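Fold it.
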Amino acid sequence: MGQLIAVGKTNEIPDGEAKVITVNRKDIAVFFTDGSYFAIDDACPHAGASLAGGFVEDGEVTCPVHAWRFKLADGAWADNPRVKTGCYKTSVVGDVVFVEVP
C-alpha cells in the first residue's frame, strides 16, 4: 500500500472538473465525474499539457491541446490503450478525498 494523500473535501471538486495536487514534484489531476473520483498524471504524455483543463465526458478526459482522450479509470489513451499516463487509486473517508501514491 502506498501513501494516502488528502486531496480536499468532496464538495471542492465540481462534477466534470478536476483539482491538481502536487506530490513529490509530480502533478496529479483528481477528477470527479458520475459520482466517482479518479486520479491520473496531470501531464499529457503527448504534449505535456495539463489534463485537468480538459473536457470530461463518458469516463474520459480530452487533452485541451491535441484532443488525445484518456480513460480516467486506468489512464489509457482511448485510441491506443498501450499508451498510458499514471493512474492512482482514490478513496473517500467521510467527506475527505484521498489519493494513494507509491
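The chain has one domain: 3-101.
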